[in-house]
Amino acid sequence: MLISENSKKIIDSCRFCWMCRHICPIGNATGQERNNARARALSLQYVERGAAELSECIDNVYECALCGACTKECATGWDPIVFTKEVRREAALDGITPDYISALIEKYGETGNIYGKTDYCDCIKNEMADLDANADTLLYIGSDARYMAPCFAKNAIIALKKAGVKFTVLADEIDSGIELDTLIGAMEETKEAMTACADVLNKYKTVIVLNPSDMKVFVREYKEWDIELKCELKTYTSVLADAYRNGKIQIAKLDGKVTYQDNPFLVREVGETEEGRVICNAAGEYVEMILSKKDTMLAGSFIMAQWMDDVMKLVAKERMANIIQSGAKTVVCASPEDYAFLKDAAPEGISVIDISELVI
Ligand code: SF4
Ligand code: SF4
User: Fold this and answer.
1) Residue 22 pLDDT > 70
2) Do 232 and 251 reside in the same domain of the chain?
3) CATH number assigned to the domain comprising residue 251
4) Residues with CB under 6 A from ligand 1
């Protein structure tokens, strides 16, 4: 297996301290030792030293959501995500990508998204109808909201209209690159997808990014590839918080305590923790759940659900336990994935709402 010196260094520097063991959402959901950064580093050490074939542990390399919880805890200060993504790329180059991943890449080649969708819900199209196509601000919805959680996209368009933002949404929006980056890492195809998306975004002065996972790719991976984004990028949550601060929107009042699901990409990769809380604090009595802000836990992933759907349901159930424990009656979500997976996992008496629903 060809693997960079940097990744080898990270794999070999694992001290097996177990600090990452208790915070992996996948490991916590499955209860399996193999599902954490430590176990993955160990099996890849065997491969690196010629004692095992990569094909023997490739499934394990795909049992990671790249959520960064282990990176935050890792005692070595290295980033276990680096070798996980790099090994995914090596598997693709060596032709040993698992069949279930190859099938998604094939769908991506055919439709431009791994979900194989060729159309999206009329609820989005209806709200797009009266937008000004010449606006210099673009709301980038992303594939997850467009195809997997259309109400989340629709509600965002409605909320931005209420805030008086002059913006447009593209009917033929293309993937940010997050899908290929997750499946095969830094391959040439991934760079091509990102460059094509950047070319479109750069036609706008400002781009409001709805999905934190797309924002993460724009601020992190594009930089690594030297793909220039000349437009000003804003998270959707920061736009809502500014609109509230400037008196452009009101926030609905909720009965009972309210908490906020920090999206892992938004807090750990983009570095935003407060903007969503500005809205939640205005909605009612705010309570913080455990494992919040930079310590947050993944609540679900549409991409990973394509091959680990049952595990994603367990991940959401684990996160829901934190919400219930907080005493909150409502959890507010700022990502389409958090919203969809937590909603499915919510017991009676717990309300899961998308942050746009609070805008009046
Ligand atoms: S990135 Fe997240 S899912 Fe992957 S090993 Fe680390 S904690 Fe687990
Ligand atoms: S925290 Fe880092 S050094 Fe410790 S076991 Fe996990 S990956 Fe290895």
Assistant:
1) yes
2) no
3) 3.40.50
4) 24-26, 36-37, 64-70, 80-81
Among all bound ligands, the one having the nearest atom to the CA of 28 is: 1
Closest CA to 107 of 95, 96, 115: 115
* Ligand (nearest to CA of 79): 2
Looking at 240, 256, 284, the residue that finishes a domain is 240
**CB 75 near ligand 2, within 6 Å:** yes
Q: Is residue 306 part of a domain?
A: yes
Whether residues 221 and 236 fall in one domain: yes
Tell me the C-alpha to C-alpha distance, in Å, between residue 2 and each of 82, 88, 282: 14, 11, 52
Q: 335 is in which domain, residue-wise?
A: 246-358
Q: Residue 102: inside a domain, yes or no?
A: no
CA distance 247 to 359: 12
35 and 61 inside one domain: yes
Residues 352 and 254 in one domain: yes
When pLDDT is averaged across residues 25-30 and rounded to a whole number, the result is: 95
Alpha-carbon distance of 302 to 149, in angstroms, equals 10
Among protein residues, the one whose CA lies closest to atom 2 of ligand 2: 74
Q: Dmax over Cα atoms in the chain, in whole Å?
A: 63
Residue 6 has pLDDT above 90, yes or no: no
26 CA → ligand 1 middle, Å: 7
